[in-house]
Amino acid sequence: MHPKLGFEAAIKAIAEWVQPKSAISHLIFCSMSGVGMPGADVILVKLLELSASINRLMLYNLSCYGSGTVLRIAKDIADTNPGARILAVRAESTCLSGRRQYREHGTTACLEQVVPTLVCSRLEACLVKAFGWATECGVASDRNSIFWVVHPGGWKVLDEVEETLFADE
Q1: Do 35 and 17 reside in the same domain of the chain?
Q2: Among 1, 75, 103, 155, which is least packed by CB within 10 angstroms?
Q3: 64 is annotated as an active-site residue
Q4: Buried b / exposed e along 150-168 (16+ C-beta atoms within 10 A)
Q5: Looking at 30, 64, 110, 120, which residue is catalytic?
């Protein structure tokens, strides 16, 4: 777990938000990097000097789907708690994908160079298959009006997805 890495990101987010830290009502912290006691959420609350009574949720070992889960939970909290102010933190020091090498203190994974091209070669067809029903039924105007997340896989994957989907914009 990386509460100090999460702390650095949280400080930047709070500064951009321009509201007092005391307004934060909920903290969601997610990390794949391990489990410890006290949890990273408790450590982050102390580092940020937040109220000890803040509503906290610590998510462990969610792997690649952790960020999407954090966003979904944050949305659910916001939808059901008017006035909630949620700080959502995802902190990792690992990259996940293809080849895995086991080392003394954890797992290291490296992204194969061909992965971004493979992901994007069928991306449009997959999005049509996944979200076409929503536009056909009038549930959504387009796929961007539906909550969905690209598997992050690494910066090269995200960059190629952006180029594939938004090259015309």
Answers
A1: yes
A2: 103
A3: yes
A4: eebbbeebeebbeebbeee
A5: 64
Q: Write down which residue in 55, 74, 90 finishes a domain.
A: 90
Q: From first to last of the 169 residues of the chain, give the pLDDT tens digit.
A: 467 778 888 999 999 998 999 999 999 998 876 677 788 889 899 999 999 999 999 988 877 778 888 999 999 999 999 999 999 998 876 544 444 444 444 445 566 788 888 888 888 888 888 778 877 888 777 766 776 766 666 778 888 888 888 777 6
| Type of residue at 8 | E
The residue range of the domain holding 103 is: 94-169
For residue 146, what is the DSSP state? S
7 and 83 fall within a common domain = yes
